[in-house]
Design brief:
By secondary structure, the protein is an alpha+beta fold. The chain has 4 helices and 5 strands. Helices cover 35% and strands 20% of the residues.
Length: 137
């Protein structure tokens, strides 16, 4: 599976919804979020709160949780290091849980950082370049 790092200032809501629906773990990676619609939607949310994208052309909606990882915006980290570190850890554990639920955790590893197969899997993703990771709820 090829994952796309989408530019939050150029991507459409339909494209985000399609990415969330089409990936095996139901996730999307966004960067360049400063001033974007996504930033406005999730700025005041805590992890676990949900945001809805209305998916107009099929009259459906997609509900997602946003995790602020801010990998491309490292200049801001000195002010928010604890919350961003927590968010990054939460994103990895959430991804590991979904990866395991899809039957990929053959050795029943408990820790994503000690699971070689999972760490290899994350190398295929733009996870360490994303400012936000969206997980479909």
């Amino acid at each position: 599976m090829i994952y796309t790092l989408m530019d939050a200032n150029k991507v459409t809501m339909d494209a985000i919804a399609n990415e969330l629906i089409s990936t095996p773990e139901n996730l999307a990676f966004l960067n360049n979020v400063n001033g974007s619609l996504i930033e406005l939607m999730v700025e005041k949310l805590n992890f676990g709160q949900k945001t809805v994208i209305f998916y107009d052309h099929n009259k459906r909606h997609v509900t997602f949780t946003a995790v602020k990882t801010m990998y491309s915006e490292s200049k801001f980290l000195k002010y928010q290091i604890l919350s961003i570190s927590h968010n990054r850890m939460t994103a990895i554990y959430t991804l590991f849980s979904r990866w395991s639920q899809n039957g990929n955790n053959k050795r029943n590893a408990k820790n994503p950082f000690k699971c070689k197969a999972f760490m290899e899997y994350t190398k295929e993703m733009p996870i360490y370049n994303a400012d936000y990771i969206l997980f479909m709820a």
